Amino acid sequence: MLLTMSTTVLSGIRATGRLHLGNYLGAVKGMLALQQEEAISTFFMVADVHTITTPYNIDELRINRREVIIDYLAAGLDPERSTLFLQSMVGEHLELAFLFSSVMSIARMQHLPTFKDKVKQYPEHATMALLNYPLLMAADILLYKANLVPVGIDQEPHIEITRQVARKMNEVYGTQLPEPQRFATKGEYVPSLQGIGKMSKSVEGSYISLTDTKTEILDRLKQAPTDSGVGRLTAMSQGVKNLLQLVELFSGAEKRKEYESQYEDTGIRYGALKAELATAIFAELKPLQERRQQFIAKPKLVDEVIEAGVTKARAVARETLDEVKEKMGLG
Ligand code: ADP
Ligand code: TRP
To answer: Is the whole model's pTM more than 0.90, yes or no?
Structure first.
């Protein structure tokens, strides 16, 4: 993708708990790569309002939304280069989401696979907040006129809705909102350790947390399904494919090829593979964990980062919201 002077980036992560390898590889790594580019503006928020769209614990949310900022800082997001903020502290997000709801049909929202999945997961909580989730996300992105969004592949339907909202708003009201694209990383889909589906916070046993110790990482990998070691006689199982994908992401394509040859030849010794993989994963997480401790020890600094980020975000958000309201006859 061509990155130009006018590239603006926004991304966010819900405050639902500890970040895991999927969040890191699919979203945070993309944020880090884009932050490196001098010419582009980067906005990274905690989607704390999105957290209330599914059942949640109030005390945990209070803690988690700050923890995500600490995770961002620990991962290397730099407040000197990127605007880091909490979505709930910039009220314009909610205001714009409501304005967007005037150009989107109920049917389109109800048919989104992400909505249907969540309703299946929480049948008692098919709320309006959940239905409006993608419009709030569209507001997050379009308030900053962001044209590039580093997120995992599971978020593609939401980016598509965002493009549709922008097109409709531009058509109906004459606004000039961009149609954003997803910025994909090599880890855009990190599989679950259980062999089926993606790694996710909401599925216990599916993930490795960024704060896990080496022993915890190995223990979690030990639970991951493989095969009897003579799997080469049949088609490769999903569990083995997933482990090889993690090997590629943390130890490189060459290492994966080595294991693939072993698979065809003598069969893989999965105990050894898992031990080696745990070492590679921990090597990448260790510096993050050390930086995390440093930020935990400096709560005032974290407060200042949030405050400065909110002030910067608010200024940009206000301008876009005023433009949109003016076009809609509400200025
Ligand atoms: P979860 O599904 O674990 O609750 P979120 O929905 O909060 O995670 O996702 C936050 C970010 O991390 C999004 O950009 C999402 O696309 C990305 N992400 C989540 N899980 C994965 C995964 N398994 N592989 C790649 N990216 C992921
Ligand atoms: N929906 C995203 C997720 O579940 C979180 C999110 C909210 C987001 N607003 C955003 C991501 C804006 C990118 C841009 O992961």
So the answer is: yes
